[in-house]
């Protein structure tokens, strides 16, 4: 094993699934892709995402105290990629990328119709960590395509593979070989 | 799209890569698998992981203010699974699972020799969120198998596929179909 004390940019723990973060303030709507995110709690249902303060979505979340998290199949990785590469400050991504969007049931958050699942999140906590801000949201609504999930709310992995990101504009595409269920 | 206001347990955003968290206090060493984790910052390099206060590893991190994050190939998913299912309070997992372990260079944290990469993390911040504690660590050392990474520190995805977890004891096994590099 080689050892490094530190390094500026690294992707040792990649590939990581990408989520698309949506936010809305007034008539401004934006989406961005993010690979730094995790569930935080079951009860209450909390989910955290890290966003650079430079991003337009960061401003929208600060102003609206809400965001959506959208999960897209790996077949849609090109849309996911573009949402990480162009800024909503310069371009209306929804119009530019011809996205179909609807507004949440519980919150004024934009949701991508192409998602197989999406969470409506009410801002619960935020904190700056280094060069990013952690936004923790309470999930107050879940949208999902019921044909793609089982009764435990697990995705049907024969039909969905989330968009996985390897860093530095690289997307590995996988196919399912086997599903293994172990004893609990 | 179907809509749920809330639900107790859900896996809509799964599969998620699993990390193995290691900690040591005195002569007690333990490892546990965790699917709730994310990078938090590049500068300083910060990484967060969510751990239930019920877990033995939680006590060890509280006492030692340090932990390791270990990344294992999907071929080792059975070891990863066992580390999530048995408690280090009852069993010495290192002995029981016959794990090869070494101690970090910068910190007194245990690292799994079978990892393709591992981070040594010094506790930077902690906070309770619902039923879990967020531990944020500053990465002060990185161990990696140099034959498995390129010069940007991305894994060679033709050789490594991280262990992905679908929740509820299910592990989907993938194979690589294609690597797509898009314009930045």
Structural features, described:
The structure is a homodimer of 184-residue chains. The first copy, chain A, is mostly beta strands and 184 residues long. Chain A has a single domain (16-165), classed as Pnp Oxidase, Chain A. The first copy, chain A, is built from three helices and 13 strands, in the order ββββββαβααββββββ. Chain A has helices spanning 56-64, 77-85, 93-96; strands spanning 2-4, 16-17, 19-25, 28-34, 37-41, 46-51, 66-71, 101-103, 110-112, 117-129, 132-144, 164-165, 170-181. In chain A, the strands form three sheets. The first copy, chain A, has a seven-stranded antiparallel β-sheet with strand order 4-3-7-10-11-6-5. The longest helix of chain A is centred in the first third of the chain and has 9 residues, at 56-64. The first copy, chain A, is globular, with a radius of gyration of 17 Å. The mean pLDDT of chain A is 96. Strand 13 (170-181) of chain A pairs antiparallel with strand 13 (170-181) of chain B.
In a nutshell, what does this entry contain?
2 copies of one chain form a homodimer. Chain A is mainly β.
Defining traits:
two-stranded antiparallel ribbon; seven-stranded antiparallel beta sheet; homodimer; mainly beta; Pnp Oxidase, Chain A; 184 residues
């Amino acid at each position: 094993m080689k050892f490094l004390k530190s390094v500026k940019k690294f992707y040792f723990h990649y590939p990581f699934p990408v989520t698309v973060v949506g936010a809305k303030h007034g008539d401004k709507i934006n989406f961005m892709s993010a690979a730094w995110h995790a569930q935080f709690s079951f009860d209450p249902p909390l989910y955290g995402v890290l966003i650079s303060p430079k991003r337009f979505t960061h401003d929208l979340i600060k102003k609206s105290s809400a965001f959506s998290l959208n999960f897209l199949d790996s077949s849609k990785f090109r849309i996911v990629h573009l949402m990480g590469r162009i800024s909503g400050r310069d371009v209306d991504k929804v119009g530019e990328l011809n996205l179909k969007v609807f507004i949440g049931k519980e919150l004024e958050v934009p949701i991508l119709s192409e998602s197989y699942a999406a969470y409506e999140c009410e801002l619960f906590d935020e904190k700056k960590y280094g060069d990013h801000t952690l936004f923790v949201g309470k999930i107050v609504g879940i949208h999902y395509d019921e044909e793609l999930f089982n009764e435990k709310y697990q995705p049907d992995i024969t039909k969905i593979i989330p968009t996985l990101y390897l860093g530095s504009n690289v997307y590995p595409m996988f196919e399912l070989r086997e599903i293994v269920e172990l004893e609990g």
